[in-house]
Amino acid sequence: MRKWSLTIRILPLVLLIILIKYAVHVGQFEFVTSNPYLPSLVAATVFLIGFLITGVLSDYKESEKLPGELATSIETIADEAQIIYMNKKSPEAKNFLLYLRSFSKSIEDWFYHKIKTRELMANLRGFNGYFAALEAQTQPAFISRIKQEQHNIRKVVTRIHTISETSFIGSGYAIAEGISALLILTILLTKFEPFLESMFFFVPVVYLFVYMIALIRDLDNPFEYDVHGEGDVEVSIKEIHDQVKRMDERIAELDTEKIQVGNK
Length: 264
Hints:
Elements: H1 5-26, E1 32-33, H2 37-88, H3 91-111, H4 117-125, H5 127-134, H6 140-165, H7 170-189, E2 190-191, H8 195-220, H9 238-255
Parallel strand pairs: 1-2
Helix pairs in contact: 1-7, 1-8, 2-3, 2-6, 2-7, 2-8, 2-9, 3-4, 3-5, 3-9, 7-8
């Protein structure tokens, strides 16, 4: 049913417009006559909406990859910390794994707007103390690798924050919404005969323009989650949920001392 959620959301507005058209017709308030400029207005609106949706789709396709990149970077850091623990039985490595589990949960909370970006970034800076503690326990290449993954996490979080906080050409939205409203108003006041036959064309046109404007608005922020999870157009963060579960499994192994070295 997720694919129909947007339709269900806009349906009351579409029905309201249809009722207004019927009331205008019954009250004989249709004073505009049909003329050749109306198809031109429809074509211009379709072109503008097509331009906007092309722009937001490029960001949306990029956004689909970002949660997976976050999960991959955290998983790589966890692997390195687990290797140090397996080799050295290092309490610092175990504490770092516990911190990584907490950090994974904070990413979930960040996506659901329970914490702010600056708080998540502060949690990410918390890696530095563990890096300093682990430098003497492993090869420099290991520390360099996990520092690079920390950089990748910071870069992805910044990109997600930018996409969430900025809109694609605000003035483009304004003119698209304005011209769509003008087009619907024009059709409402235009006299079409026969009326019932014209309604078969009026309803799809209204539904199309209302739906596309709402869709573009949703696509422009693919990370607008709520406490109930992903909606109809939000990017899936299943990779983040799965990564949190895997971190819980790692910690369970640590707690029960089931981590084995090699084939022992």
